[in-house]
Amino acid sequence: MREGKRDPAIAVFLAAVFVAWAMLPIDGADGQEPVMQLSNGFTATHSADAPGRFEPVLFAPNGVFAFGFLRVGSASLDLAVVHLPSSFPLWRATPDRVADWSRPATLSFDRRLVLTVPEVGELWTTLNVVGDTVALLNSSDLVIRLFNGRGTPWRSFENPSDTLVLGQNFTMSSPPLISKNRRFSLRFAKTYMALHMEFYGGRTRPMYWQYTAREAQPENATQPPVYGRLDSRGFFGLYLLGGDQSVDMLAFDTFVRNLTGAFRRMTLDDDGNLRAYYWTEGSKAWTSDYKAITGPCELPTSCGAYGLCVPGGAPKCQCLINSTASISPPCRAEDSTDLCAGGGGQLFDVVRRNWVSLAYKEQLPFETYKTAAECEQSCAASCSCWGAVYNGGSGYCYLLDFPVETVVYEADDRKVGYFKVRKAQQQSAAGRGMPPGVTAAVVVASLVLASLAVAGAFIGWGRWQRQRRAGGVGMEQELTPGHYRDLKSMDSPNNSFKT
Ligand SMILES: *[C@@H]1O[C@H](CO)[C@@H](O)[C@H](O)[C@H]1NC(C)=O
Ligand SMILES: *[C@@H]1O[C@H](CO)[C@@H](O)[C@H](O)[C@H]1NC(C)=O
Ligand SMILES: *[C@@H]1O[C@H](CO)[C@@H](O)[C@H](O)[C@H]1NC(C)=O
Ligand SMILES: *[C@@H]1O[C@H](CO)[C@@H](O)[C@H](O)[C@H]1NC(C)=O
Ligand SMILES: *[C@@H]1O[C@H](CO)[C@@H](O)[C@H](O)[C@H]1NC(C)=O
User: Fold this and answer.
1) Structure confidence by residue, pLDDT tens digits, 454-496
2) CB-based pocket (< 6 A), ligand 1
3) Do 399 and 385 touch, CB atoms closer than 8 A?
4) Which atom of ligand 5 is nearest to the CA of 321?
5) For the whole prediction, is pTM greater than 0.85?
6) CA separation (Å) from 400 to 206, 305, 362, 460?
7) What SS3 class is residue 175?
8) pLDDT tens digit string along 390-400?
9) Which of 41, 111, 212, 383 is the most exposed place for a label (fewest CB within 10 A)?
10) 437: in domain
11) Beta bridge partners of 25
12) φ, ψ for residue 407, nearest 5 deg
């Protein structure tokens, strides 16, 4: 895992696990070739005590990708297509109901792919699809095919999770890219692509970044919609659907360098930024060569809920409200329900701040008022409104119909903000905190699971080495559960600002 210091007890424990595993017979070591195709009737059961984080069941012919059971976070199970050299999951099934790693789960193929957990039932399936075989292509596309080249009724490329790879078409009718923490999405409209925050289970999704294809003509009704595709030459190309007519491209930093042979991905990260990364042979880590949003304060939740981001050489987080949290950020737990439920009685306190603005105000609807008081009043009167930001210069009043996230400091007297803060009883009723005993137990359990994960990583890697020449199934690098990205990490060289 990422921790620099290792606990000697854990090290000893790991060594013991490793030795124990090394003495077990390894499947595939008897000269069996890796599985390249699944046929009807296939089943594989994940073993609940498997130490690795990834159990492959199907390999791409180039040996770079595999499909199998993936352990997510400390205890969840998912199906994933993994880029083996980096251990990065390029695609995940992401069932609505999360499966538990500690229970046996079965993956079967019987005209459709199904993930089943005994006594729980089907957790995930390729609905309404009938096919004959399953294969993983050299591109990392997981496909269900019909015999005799009669078609491909299902492919993972048409059902993305948080990542796009080379050659994968992303269109208006594709399901959106959703970040791992499920708080952000990327969607295409007819002539533009946009990033959205997801609130209330997707009922409200304010846009915070938009990119319109330069040569698309929004007023031309007969022009087909735009779609996007990552190109190995180092750009994200925008084309008109039904052909390859280019209408724009987002060039990455490596575009001018003529970098050939790199594997590329574009991922909607948990901080809400859309980044492109590449991996070359012998790489130790993914290198980012593009990000949609360059300034840390322009990310919609850079300082968490009720945070105030102060831009500058080293951007800083403050709180809009008096924070009870000992660490800052976040200033306050995220709110997940609106303020319309309460019936009688005011459910919120009010905070007013001047010198504040919103990084994405251009994407928000606004009303025009002569005074800040009128703007405030418009928000106060509506229970779906969480706050309003007023620009005394233009008279624009931006209304937030979603829980308050990070606002940005702007040294301008005329920019004022009005924010509702759910009253404390309401907040604690939402039940975010855990009693200290539970917290300690969780910490201990996480440590044990984390050490198992590292052990599994070594084991999986050794296993893969034995089966193939290259690659590893070491899961430590990219599979750490989503953590809060503070401003320091946004500042790190891996995410360095474009100049
Ligand atoms: C996939 O990659 C392997 C190894 O690089 C190669 O032999 C095979 O021809 C490729 N398959 C396709 C369909 O390109
Ligand atoms: C509208 O788009 C279609 C298809 O791209 C094109 O053939 C046509 O010339 C366009 N019309 C105008 C007025 O630009
Ligand atoms: C993506 O779209 C292009 C152009 O329409 C097409 O040639 C290509 O086969 C598509 N790729 C995939 C993986 O579907
Ligand atoms: C880029 O690579 C191509 C093919 O490998 C080569 O023909 C071209 O000259 C290269 N361009 C530059 C600027 O290096
Ligand atoms: C924040 O704290 C200050 C001083 O401790 C107090 O005057 C103010 O009313 C507090 N504001 C809120 C919203 O609780």
Assistant:
1) 444 434 434 444 444 333 333 333 333 333 333 433 433 333 3
2) 61-62, 138
3) yes
4) 13
5) no
6) 9, 13, 13, 48
7) coil
8) 999 999 999 99
9) 41
10) no
11) none
12) -110, 165
